[in-house]
Amino acid sequence: MRTLSPARLANTLTAHDRKRLKEHGHEANFLEGTRLFEEGSVADRFWIVRSGTVTLDMRVPGRKPALIERLGPGELVGWSWLLRPYTWHNSAEAETPVRAYEFNAVTVRTAMDADPAFGSLIGNWVTSVLAYRLQGTRLRLLDEYALHGGVDTV
């Protein structure tokens, strides 16, 4: 069983810290089917979903994009904005109409640099999201590998 997602902002940051982060964002809305970003493009922003569902996917040569994860209310969409070279490692699409807070990456990184405690808090939050998603992806890959007969039995 998976633990509470650190991608859900309320599971990781206090109300005060959430308010402080939200000071750097604005509301954004996306229609179903809108691509938020594409793998390989510049990661210059990120979002926290307020309502709706965003899917994360990645390119697979010769096939349609592979679904990585579905994200819902309170979850972080995008982490590549925090790590150089600030390039998206996957793609994202609004699966349903989405309301979100949108953040300019440069603005947030500047605020993080100006206040090391705030920077550490946000950095730790994004790192915990990365670790959580990596574990989830690993489990999905193991399931997929086993489903297609890739597991040897002795």
Automatic annotation (TrEMBL):
Where does the record place the Cyclic nucleotide-binding domain?
A: 9-112
Q: Which PROSITE patterns match?
A: CNMP_BINDING_3
Pfam families given for it?
cNMP_binding
Q: Quote the InterPro entries the UniProt record gives.
A: cNMP-bd_dom (IPR000595), cNMP-bd_dom_sf (IPR018490), RmlC-like_jellyroll (IPR014710)
**At the top level of its lineage, which domain of life is listed?**
Bacteria
- Protein name (record): Regulatory protein
Which organism's genome codes for this protein? Streptomyces globisporus
